[in-house]
Amino acid sequence: MPKLEGKIAVVTGAGSGIGRASALLFAAQGAVVVVADVDAASGEETAARIRAAGGASEFVATDVCSAASVRALVELASERFGRLDVLFNNAGIGGEYAPLAECSEENFDRILAVNLRGVFLGMKYGIQAMLRSGGGVIVNTASVSGIAGAAAFPAYCASKAGVILLTKSAAVAYAQHGIRVNCLCPGVTETPILRMIPSEFEGLSYQHPMRRKAAPEEMARAALFLACDDSSFATGTELVVDGGFTAQ
Question: Is the pTM of this model over 0.90?
């Protein structure tokens, strides 16, 4: 039986990378997938791919920095399909790459707005919907950069560390309400964010003992594990999928 049969799932940042791979996999595992992305063209393409493969999907243009936009996304999913079972808060950006003293205030604010505030808003409105329908599962995308510092990515590291603790706080608060909240901590993964990293940091993947980048599909499978009943006793945890990077 498909692992998400009959579930209603929302995936943010689903126009590319881990988000797209996860949306496609969730749909293949039986979920109705509401695809959310700030980029309408890429988001529509993901939803079209799901439908072409025989799945059910709808695209909703969403700016995760906007409370009104995130609230509208959750309300649409809940009202159109009756409930929200799975929320994957995956949208994120890399921003500028520079050590802390050279990090602009604008860059810091922008990264925190998308990567951390966006997850906060998704959980805030997603939890409200799940409380009304009796429970659900939330997965948040953090990063190994939220566990181990990186000299050139201070704002990104801060945002992802915040996601980890925000995840734990929500998990503790809503464990007795049938809501599980976990986060995924990817290592270097072949996504649009990675392709924007300056050339001097291109060797990051070789810091992983496995000496390669991950494919988005590998992270999607980890997200599926957290989203389905295979992880039914897991909440408040970070699933590190990093080719051994943090084991060093």
Answer: yes
